[in-house]
């Protein structure tokens, strides 16, 4: 009987691993906490940039190879992890790097301040299912903290929803090398450079955000690297909605804890190809292993992790 492998997470790394393993005759089951497969390809990157039918087609190819998908299943409990670990010959953690970096400033507890992924997921679910938007930028003043790809996805989404105004706070200087965004909005109209949020102001004691206080920062380079200096040149901007898009810290601990896996950052990082963990039959790949990266790296990691699992099982 062919050996059984469980993959936790159906993003590009998990799917790439599943394709190799299923093609090589292994019996593969994928667990996914969301209602659709694809990871960030499904619920992070907006539909206007990546058509979700293409992601579902990829999942169908895997199903045709015999891969089973178990959706709506968040594997975070120790007893569930123990059952999976004992029922399968190997387990691959491909759970991504979903732990968002937060901004710890006054007023962070106010409502209508969301992490980027909450917003992007909500909008995609709305487009695919017709479910009402929980976070709707229509007619609102939107401030996005962060200047990377995820922040740009939020800008494009807020514009598509009909926001009244969209401003993006980018902490680095304008002259830094960066690629143009993949949308057709004019960055210079939306993005403010060397600016960050220093305080959120309440809407008259109602508990929701109304304004963002910003500061102009300088990047000071010395022999110890780059330092950010605040200038206390505070300004204010209207904000009915704020999206925090300042990066990701790594995988959520819940799946790692459930499987009793400890990440060792000296071996699990972008410069290595170590897919094993402290648990003999449990492997890890993709953003969960190397930190938030790019689709091409996730796919490469999935393929290499699959080969590492095959070596272990042989
Ligand atoms: C908003 C955004 C836009 C991006 N745009 C681009 C881009 O344009 N181009 C590019 O190259 N890269 C982009 N990236 C990066 C790229 O999407 C990621 O590097 C890639 O998706 C990582 O793949 P992965 O399979 O490791 O993890 P993910 O895609 O994050 O997939 C992890 C999966 O695991 C599931 N999961 C997590 N925990 C559990 C659990 N306990 N139980 C069950 N399921 C679980 C998650 O729901 C998810 O489906 C973007 C990232 C973000 C956040």
**CATH-defined fold name of the largest domain:** FAD/NAD(P)-binding domain
* Biggest sheet details: 5 strands, parallel
DSSP strand (E) fraction? 15-25%
Low-confidence stretches: none
Strand order of the largest sheet: 3-2-1-4-16
**CATH homologous superfamily of the largest domain - what is it?**
FAD/NAD(P)-binding domain
Helical percentage: 25-40%
Q: Can you write the helix and strand succession as a string?
A: EHEHHEHEEEHEHEHEEEEEEEHEHH
Protein name: FAD-dependent oxidoreductase
GO molecular function, one term: oxidoreductase activity
Domain FAD/NAD(P)-binding: 4-302
Pfam families: Pyr_redox_2 (PF07992)
Brief write-up:
With 314 residues, this protein is of the alpha/beta class.
What does this structure look like?
The protein is an alpha/beta fold. The chain has 2 domains: 4-98 and 249-313, 3-Layer(bba) Sandwich (FAD/NAD(P)-binding domain); 102-246, FAD/NAD(P)-binding domain, CATH 3.50.50.60. The chain is built from 10 helices and 16 strands. Helix 1 (12-23) runs parallel beside helix 10 (295-313). The radius of gyration is 21 Å and the shape is globular. The structure holds flavin-adenine dinucleotide. One of its GO terms (molecular function) is oxidoreductase activity.
Task: Summarize the topology.
Elements: E1 4-8, H1 12-23, E2 27-31, H2 40-43, H3 52-64, E3 68-70, H4 78-87, E4 90-93, E5 99-100, E6 113-115, H5 116-129, E7 141-145, H6 149-160, E8 165-170, H7 187-190, E9 191-193, E10 195-202, E11 209-222, E12 225-230, E13 235-238, E14 241-244, E15 248-250, H8 253-258, E16 282-284, H9 287-290, H10 295-313
Parallel strand pairs: 1-2, 1-4, 2-3, 4-16, 6-14, 7-8, 7-14, 8-9
Antiparallel strand pairs: 5-15, 10-11, 11-12, 11-13
Helix pairs in contact: 1-10, 5-6
Bound molecules: flavin-adenine dinucleotide.
Organism: Candidatus Xianfuyuplasma coldseepsis
GO molecular function: oxidoreductase activity
Domain FAD/NAD(P)-binding: 4-302
């Amino acid at each position: 009987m062919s050996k059984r492998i469980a993959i936790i997470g159906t993003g590009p790394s998990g799917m790439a691993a599943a394709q190799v393993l299923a093609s090589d005759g292994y019996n593969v089951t994928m667990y996914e906490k969301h209602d659709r497969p694809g990871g960030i390809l499904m619920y992070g990157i907006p539909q206007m940039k990546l058509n979700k039918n293409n992601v579902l087609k990829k999942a169908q190819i895997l199903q045709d190879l015999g891969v089973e998908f178990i959706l709506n299943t968040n594997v975070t409990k120790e007893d569930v992890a123990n059952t999976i670990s004992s029922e399968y010959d190997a387990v691959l953690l491909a759970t991504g790097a979903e732990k968002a970096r937060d901004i710890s400033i006054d007023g962070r507890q106010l409502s209508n301040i969301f992490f980027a992924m909450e917003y992007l997921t909500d909008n995609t679910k709305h487009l695919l299912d017709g479910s009402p938007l929980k976070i709707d930028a229509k007619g609102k003043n939107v401030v996005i903290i962060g200047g990377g790809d995820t922040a740009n996805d939020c800008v494009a989404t807020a514009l598509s929803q009909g926001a009244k105004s969209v401003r993006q706070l980018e902490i680095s200087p304008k002259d830094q090398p960066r690629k143009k965004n993949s949308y057709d909005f004019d960055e210079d109209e939306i993005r403010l450079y060397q600016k960050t949020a220093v305080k959120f102001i309440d809407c008259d004691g109602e508990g929701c955000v109304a304004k963002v206080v910003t500061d102009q920062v300088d990047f000071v380079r010395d022999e110890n690297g780059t330092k950010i200096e605040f200038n206390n040149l505070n300004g204010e901007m209207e904000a009915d909605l704020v999206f925090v898009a300042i990066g990701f810290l790594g995988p959520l601990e819940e799946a790692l804890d459930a499987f009793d896996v400890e990440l060792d950052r000296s071996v699990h990082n972008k410069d290595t190809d170590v897919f094993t963990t402290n648990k003999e039959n449990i492997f890890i790949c993709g953003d969960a292993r190397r930190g938030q990266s790019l689709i091409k790296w996730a796919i490469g990691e999935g393929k290499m992790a699959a080969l590492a699992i095959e070596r272990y099982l042989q």
